[in-house]
Amino acid sequence: MSSRGRRITDEEMSELVSKLQSLLPESRRRSMGRASAAKLLKETCSYVQSLHREVDDLSDRLSALMATLDVNSPQADIIRDLFR
Fold first, then answer.
1. For residue 39, which of 25, 33, 47, 55 sits 20 to 30 Å off, Cα-Cα?
2. pTM of the complete model
3. Residue 33: is it exposed, middle or buried by C-beta count within 10 angstroms (0-12/13-18/19+)?
4. What is the residue extent of each domain of the chain?
């Protein structure tokens, strides 16, 4: 039988939930206490969305900074080096 057709056991689900919860920052885990799998999934989605917003914000700020720099300046070189 393929792995797609195999059902996940309660023990496996519990292990996956624990692994997922360990990926959340301590502050979010602490506020959740002993959460249900559904609450954990919602909190994980919220956290991923907040990370996405943070990446977008940082990208916008970096683009604005790069637009103000001379492309041959030492500061622009430092920023380019960070992305290599």
1. 55
2. 0.68
3. exposed
4. 10-82
